[in-house]
Write a structure and sequence with these properties.
Elements (H helix, E strand, L loop, with lengths): L8 E4 L13 E4 H6 L3 H11 L3 H4 L3 E6 L5 H14 L4 E9 L2 H10 L4 E5 L11 E8 L7 H13 L2 E4 L11 E5 L8 E6 L3 H8 L4 H9 L6 E4 L6 H11 L7 E2 L20 H7 L6 E5 L6 E5 L4 E2 L1 H10 L5 H6 L4 E4 L5 H9 L3 E4 L3 H9 L5 E4 L3 E4 L7 H15 L3 H12 L1 E12 L1 H16 L7 E4 L2 E10 L2 E2 L6 E2 L4 E5 L4 E6 L7 E11 L7 H16 L1 H5 L6 E2 L1
Parallel strand pairs: 3-4, 3-5, 4-9, 10-11, 10-12, 15-16, 15-17
Antiparallel strand pairs: 1-7, 2-6, 5-6, 8-9, 12-13, 13-14, 17-18, 19-26, 19-27, 20-21, 21-24, 22-23, 24-25, 25-26
Helix pairs in contact: 2-4, 2-6, 11-13
């Protein structure tokens, strides 16, 4: 056997112009990574080159993915390039699989300089699907814009990358593997770790597992159904909810991670998790939840498939926050939501006299507030909820938070939500997604829309639909000044705010891989009519939103791809 040090090569390459990371990293169709020469290598080198050599030398980096197609291929390249770029140790999830919340946890636990997450989140997988690469920094959260801009600039001028092609790692065996490299004084170490244990231990210190076990498997236990949608979270649900908290094994479905997510779209909403919703309708389950591909998003359901909107979910958790032992110890520093998310959380913040922050979409903005000790709980309308225990949204954390509330209050999901509406009033909220729209058409529409709403004459305009009249009070392109470091983030969504507080918001999403996704968000507050159908209540505003934007005409679409 040849024990000579492994050779490090410098390989010439040519840049690609399209490697700008979006809200959640670089996402492309799998074939882009497979067919374009050195496309993957260029981006990985750009990540390593964005880190100062002194910080990189001998450092620890965490690597894991959601198990989608191309995951193991990418990990082999990352391992070979990390070694060649002076990284001292890689911590990799068993079989290369680790949820996004768990990676955030492990980065923080081992004081790594960052982590590379291989996921396209809730986007489809398989050879015809999407693949993504996201870089998280030392706080465990998504890289800030200054870092992603640096990565992009490097990718536009890259001329070579460093790699150790003879280095091969065994992802199936737990433990340490060491490799000697030429011209390196210390061996390069790869540590294959149990993907679940560090994260499970973190949850044990947040929730009362004894009380949850009694609630889920004791004498008068409730029946639950959790759908991992063949994403990364299956092993976590099995180990934590079934084995540790005592839930019957058949409470957890679609728990085997698959490269193509079983041919499904791993997006936990009423459209793509329809099988779960249908299985809840007959009332045999008291609580249901679905998770996305990488385990950071969640959808909450009550008996008979009663749907809890994500803005309501974070508001209810906020109002019942001391049902979670962690917050009894730490106190509550602040609440936050993304700008498109309904203002249900604002009402709880006002009643409890807790600071409320409204940020652009993207978890990195929450992370900055958490690092400064200003934020404890936050959420986004895109099925993301989380606390300050890590720096990512966290699907299983949100489910255990809800189960903690149910165990304490001893009421159904529906009754808890209806009590909440009676106490605070209700924010009706919906989102229309128009996916894979022609990029030029979408951009032109948004530009024309901004010109229209920026005109002074637009404010005070009235729009009448049936017997309802809405008067524009404010219209702008949302801009955020970070209260921690005063950085300004512009162009975060076009807002039309009416005199009754109702809002219409238009955004181009940064999480797709193909074409553009136009999102319309509609939010309206009601104090009295709180038990009506959401789409019926918001129909007048939806009509106005489409009339103002001329979206169907401008994009050639007759209706949205998804309504949530």
């Amino acid at each position: 056997m040849d024990n000579s040090p492994l050779q490090v090569l410098t390989v010439p390459t040519a840049p690609y112009p399209d490697q700008r990371p979006g809200t959640s990293g670089l996402r492309k169709k799998v074939y882009v990574f497979q067919s374009r020469r050195n496309y993957l290598h260029n981006f990985i080198q750009s990540i390593f080159s964005s880190i100062d050599l002194r910080d990189r030398q001998g450092s620890t980096v965490v690597v894991g993915g959601d198990g989608r197609f191309f995951n193991t291929t990418a990990i082999e390249v990352i391992v070979q390039m990390a070694a060649a770029n002076g990284v001292g140790r890689l911590i990799i999830g068993h079989h290369g699989i680790m949820s996004t919340p768990a990676i955030s946890c492990v980065i923080r636990k081992y004081k790594a300089i960052g982590g590379i997450i291989l996921t396209a989140s809730h986007n489809p997988g398989g050879p015809e699907g999407d693949f993504g690469i996201k870089f998280n920094t030392a706080n465990g959260g998504p890289a800030k814009e200054a870092v992603t801009n640096k990565i992009f600039q490097i990718s536009r001028t890259i001329e070579e990358f460093a790699i150790c092609p003879g280095l091969h790692v065994d992802l199936t065996t737990l433990g340490k593997q060491t490799f000697d490299l030429e011209n390196k004084f210390k061996p390069f170490t790869v540590e294959i770790v149990d993907s679940v244990e560090s994260y499970a231990n973190l949850l044990r210190n947040i929730f009362d597992f004894a009380a949850l076990k009694e609630f889920l498997s004791g004498e008068n236990h409730i029946k639950i159904r959790l759908d991992s949608m063949h994403g990364v979270l299956g092993p976590y649900v099995k180990r934590i909810v079934c084995e540790e908290l005592g839930c019957p094994v058949n409470s957890a479905i679609n728990c085997v991670p698959m490269e193509d997510f079983g041919g499904q779209h791993p997006d936990p909403n009423l459209t793509y998790a329809a099988d779960l919703v249908d299985s809840m309708r007959d009332g045999q389950y008291d609580f249901g939840a679905a998770f996305d591909g990488d385990g950071d998003r969640n959808m909450i359901l009550g008996k008979h498939g009663f749907f809890v909107s994500p803005p309501d979910s974070v508001a209810v958790i906020a109002d019942n926050i001391f049902c979670i032992p962690y917050f009894q110890h730490t106190g509550v520093r602040g609440f936050a939501r993304s700008m498109p998310t309904s203002s249900a959380l604002d009402r709880v913040a006002k009643a409890t006299k807790i600071e409320l922050y409204e940020t652009p979409t993207g978890w990195k903005f929450f992370g900055n507030l958490m690092d400064a000790g200003r934020l404890s709980l936050c959420g986004e309308e895109s099925f993301g909820t989380g606390g300050d225990h890590i720096r990512e949204k966290d699907g299983l954390w949100a489910v255990l938070a809800w189960l903690s509330i149910l165990a304490t209050r001893r009421k159904s999901v529906e009754d808890i939500l209806k009590d909440h509406w009676l106490k605070y009033g209700r924010n009706y909220f919906t989102r229309y997604d128009y996916e894979n729209v022609d990029i030029d058409a979408a951009c032109e529409m948004m530009e024309d829309l901004e010109i229209m709403i920026s005109d002074k004459s637009f404010v005070k305009q009235r729009f009448a639909v049936e017997d309802k009249i809405y008067q524009v009070e404010k219209a702008d392109n949302f801009e955020y000044t970070d209260p921690v470091d005063s950085t300004i983030t512009r162009n975060q969504g076009l807002r039309i705010i009416f005199s009754d507080g109702s809002r219409i918001i238009y955004r181009l999403s940064g999480t797709g891989s193909d074409g553009a996704t136009v999102r319309i968000y509609i939010d309206s507050y009601e104090k009295e009519q709180i038990f009506e159908d959401t789409q019926v209540m918001l129909a007048p505003l939806a009509t106005i939103a489409l009339k103002i934007s001329q979206l169907h005409h401008r994009t050639g679409r007759s209706g949205p791809s998804v309504i949530t």
